[in-house]
Specification:
The protein is 61% helix and 0% strand. It has six helices and no strands.
């Protein structure tokens, strides 16, 4: 499952809505539109992504990054845990002579 589809699933789970209802809210007649959202081989339109971002309250850049990653245009981001990130920040600060 791709990142874009995870955003869609999070929305439908959070709002207790079906794919069909979401498709209608986005201006489509059927949920068949989501076939390409699960594993994009062709990018959804910018308008569809913007409508989903607006409806779901997800920043458009996050939605765009998700679909671009799913389709192979962006590399998968390296996931870090909060503790790894915090350790890196502490290391940078402790090595800064001005701190």
């Amino acid at each position: 499952m791709g990142q874009l589809w995870e955003l869609v699933q999070a929305y439908t789970d959070r709002h207790g809505t079906s794919e069909r209802q979401l498709a209608k809210r986005l201006g489509y007649k059927s949920s068949g539109v989501f076939v390409n959202w699960r594993e994009p081989k062709q990018l959804p339109s910018a308008q569809a992504l913007a409508r989903f971002a607006d409806l779901s309250g997800t920043p458009y850049q996050r939605v765009l990054d998700a679909v671009l990653t799913d389709s192979g245009y962006l590399p998968e981001p390296r996931l870090t845990t909060d503790s790894e990130e915090l350790s890196r920040v502490r290391l940078i600060r402790s090595s800064d002579p001005g701190s």
